[in-house]
Design brief:
alpha/beta; hydrolase; dTTP/UTP pyrophosphatase; dTTP diphosphatase activity; ITPase-like_fam
């Protein structure tokens, strides 16, 4: 059984393109970066810790005696090494979008697959480059009122209205949304889960 350790509707939708049947078990962890922790180390650690937290919850609950594989992921927006998380309020959102305005940044999305019974763990980090056009303060205020930035890393959603700010993307679009489909399918295959076979019932 495959379990997605995330409450994100975007990740659920993306994983549903690869695998028809899976369970969802959100993992609550402390997402505070360590002092002097690099962005790449941070996103890898977040995915790993989410996978372990979900595993612990499942082993104490309904899947205690059932073999399962956990898929966890983390997405961070990074500007010159600085990690931009989710904004707590409008002022934080405004500061983030001003920082992203008229420049390039990176989106790092890590993926962790973990089979606790076989003690099989795989981790990867997918880095994409995103270029923003200049954004005015009026646009930032209007965007905040749309409700979209509130729960998004970097305070924008490329799959939503935030796309109007995006000049270009180099890398994995699905990773920027929240789950890199190519890399995830490659990892799933290592655990005996083959996406095209799953979807075609072969």
């Amino acid at each position: 059984m495959l379990v997605l350790a995330s409450a994100s509707p975007r990740r659920k939708e993306l994983l549903g393109q690869l695998v028809r049947h899976f369970e969802v078990c959100p993992a609550d962890i402390d997402e505070t970066p360590y002092q002097d922790e690099s962005a790449s180390d941070y996103v890898l650690r977040m995915a790993h810790e989410k996978a372990l937290a979900a595993t612990n919850k499942l082993q104490q609950g309904q899947l205690a005696d059932t073999p399962f594989v956990v898929l966890a992921s983390d997405t961070s927006v990074v500007v010159e090494g600085k990690i931009l998380g989710k904004p707590n309020d409008f002022e934080e959102s405004k500061a983030m979008l001003r920082m992203l305005s008229d420049r390039d940044h990176q989106v790092m999305t890590s993926v962790c697959l973990y089979d606790p019974m076989r003690e099989h763990l795989q981790l990867t980090n997918v880095v994409s480059d995103v270029s923003f056009r200049a954004i005015s303060d009026v646009e930032i205020a209007q965007y905040w009122r749309s409700g979209e930035p509130q729960d998004k890393a970097g305070s924008y959603a490329i799959q939503g209205l935030g796309a109007v700010f995006v000049r270009s993307v180099s890398g994995s679009y699905s990773a920027v949304v929240g789950l890199p489909l190519y890399e995830t399918s490659q990892l799933l295959a290592l655990f005996g889960i083959h996406s095209l076979e799953e979807m075609s019932h072969e």
